[in-house]
Amino acid sequence: MSKGANMPVPQAPVRLRLHWRHGAGVPDAWTAALLVTGDGRVAPDGVVGGERPVPGGAVRHEGRTVTGDRTAETLHVDLPALPAHVDRVVLVAGVGGGTFGAVPGLDVTVADAAGDRELARYESRDTTTETAFVAGELYRRQGGWKFRAVGQGYAGGRAELAAAHGLAPGLLPAPRTPAAPPPAPAAARPAAVTLTKAAPSVSLAKQGATTGSLHVNLNWQAPPAPRGWFARNAAPRTPLDLDLGALFELADGTKGVVQALGNAFGDLHRPPWIHLDGDDRTGAVAAGENLTVNLDHTRDFRRVLVFVTIYEGAADFSGLHATVTLRPQHGAPVTFSLDECDVPSPVCALALLTQGPDGLVVHREARYLVPGRSSSPQRALDEAYGWGLRWTPGRK
């Protein structure tokens, strides 16, 4: 099969295998299966790798076999036993201590589980700097199943692959790596850049962030719950739900929005080169709201405005103590805190990325907006920055 091609497979148990030739200097690989629902999200308990099976046993990792100079990792998929809400089974893989460009003989096969007869084969021969990739996928089509050869690579590795599927990197198998060198002294590591009102901008290129991914995180602390008499007499509180998003304008004039509202989660590997992770309602530092920008396509951006809205749980941003961190794959992180909100604002412009002489420049905005009586938070943001989009009601 060629990259992107698809073919039908029988609605029966099958085996997905990743094969490669091992040898001196060849990085070791890992595999996992992602169970994706019809809305494009990975199902709860939908990561299968190592000792982690899917509930019900419909998908399991059968381990590794070595024959001569060939290694294979196998996932058993019982297609008839898959829950009805699972729309795709995605075979993902990664390496530790190298790139897939250094892994020879990389093949993906589908075999009938009963007789182990090969049904499809995809030979991946165009990998270079990728350290993780989507090898192929089984997907439902008109009451049956098909296999597609995907071969989509991620130079950002396990973290970038996880972000593209709305997952925490820790849910994917840990790469096997040779013994790591001792960590660099703390002084050799790039120090974070803190933006303030007095120094509100920084060039990403001057911080060494010209390629790879830019991970944007928003975390916050919810106002404390009432205590004593006030707690007993207070109405039940709706959990606080903040939504991170981004308005984008590309170099070709394309404009749009990436946000959870309307399920407009974007895409990291095709326009708009921005992907929003899953929705979070805790604000924890390790989670919070996250989106990723593909810096390999820096010149495809004209401007990107990162913003946050209150979906429910609070009338404005007062008392939330929010912090924004932009963490590039290469270079120093950029961070800043939001000012205390003293207006009835449900939307805040966080950071504006624009083109500078050397690439993207990050501007600290921290600007609270108050929509008009008939205006939405997104429309108020659009009008303040002159984006010119048409807005319609949406839900998530």
From TrEMBL:
Domain TerD positions: 1-164
Pfam families in alphabetical order: TerD
InterPro entries named among the record's database cross-references: Stress/Tellurium_Resist, Tellurite_resistance_TerA, TerD
Superkingdom, natural source: Bacteria
Signal sequence region: none
Protein family (similarity comment): Belongs to the CAPAB/TerDEXZ family.
Protein name stated in the entry: Tellurium resistance
Species of the source: Streptomyces koyangensis
